[in-house]
Amino acid sequence: MPKEHLNPPRGTRDFFPEDMLFRNWLFERFKETSRLFGFQEVDAPVLESAELFTRKAGEEIVEQLYHFEIHDRHLALRPEFTPSLARMVSNRAGSIRFPLKWFSIPQCWRYERMTRGRRREHYQWNCDIWGEASEVAEAELIAMIFHCISEMGIPKNVVRLRLNNRALLEETLRAGVLAKTPEAFEPLCVIIDKLDKIGKEAVIEQLCAPEGPVRISRASSQETVDLLSVKTLKEASQNAPPNSSAIESLKKLFSLLEAYGISDRVDFDASVVRGLAYYTGIVFEAFDTAGNLRAICGGGRYDKLLETLGGPSTPAVGFGFGDAVIAELLKEHKLLPEISRNVDAFVLALGKEEQQSAVKLANRLRAEGNAVELALAPMRVRKALQEADRAGASTLYVIGPEERDRGVARARSLESQDEWEVHL
After folding, report:
1. Which of 59, 73, 74, 225 is most exposed, with minimal Cβ within 10 Å?
2. Which domains does the chain have, with CATH numbers?
3. What is the model's pTM?
4. Beta-sheet strands, E only, within 88-138
5. Is residue 283 a contact partner of residue 298, using CB atoms and an 8 Å limit?
């Protein structure tokens, strides 16, 4: 077999024991934050009908699907969790009590260009609130993000959040450059979401491309890109249509964030639009302040998603927080946790004749709630001490011929080196 076939597919990962220790540590932070904010955990199949993700034309994510046909069915590995969540809510329509607060940590798959912190397979902490139309929902989610980041030991000045309101951009453009082609707004958002990746000139070229989905003039393309450079809510208010509901929504959100004590970590940024077509209102992304990594997490409001599945219009907002970028950030700031195995005891039989006594002792210790590693073959005590230390055990139990005859085990504390006997 060629050597490359022994490696995981490009963009995916094997999780060895030490990797699982970190992954579990990270997931525990996600779960504990969710618990503190009153969220319930859900999950769904990693395999869905491809139509669930292709319902909107023009989204880049459609081109990134891992999909196949089998038994006349077109299936895909989920590239994100929100459509699955919408399907689940739709299936329980009429029996769900709103507002609902659900979280999940799904594995997602996208065939995309890999960069630092971007993989083709990743896990993502998703938190969503359904049935609440006010900005309180966005504020609660943003507070969750900062709480979780703080629980990871990341200093306050390392991560900031940028937000915008897609409705504000939509109001402005449909009153101007998209007045005659309002249907071009969603594909326009997909293109301008690439601003940081491909630069202004490339975005302008795609917006005015005659064969593209937007097809506005070069002057209109330049005007659109200029709108994205606005960095203050005051300036955005001056450019917005009179009595803009989107501006009022942003003002309410900033007021709520002040009550949470996190408004000083959040900035208005007109260039944040998020590339997925289903977003309808406030959108946000968290970044490292050094600018070395792609977005740590992102989300926003998607009030019309359930309608695309044939359900009633239902307000909804959520975010996705990937495992790959935050791992890079922790590594960069030397904040990766030192995690040892959670083993309480290591039990050793010095010979085969003592193995049954060792098994009985291990069983008793486990029945008392201890995590026990049982040596599966005899070894020297010196090696057993090394193995016990590597396992993170606090106590080594040794049974030799003398101990077996007297019905005891010799115990040693690996921390204090104190020794005592335990009756078998």
Report:
1. 73
2. 3-332 (3.30.930.10), 345-423 (3.40.50.800)
3. 0.87
4. 100-104, 107-109, 121-130
5. yes
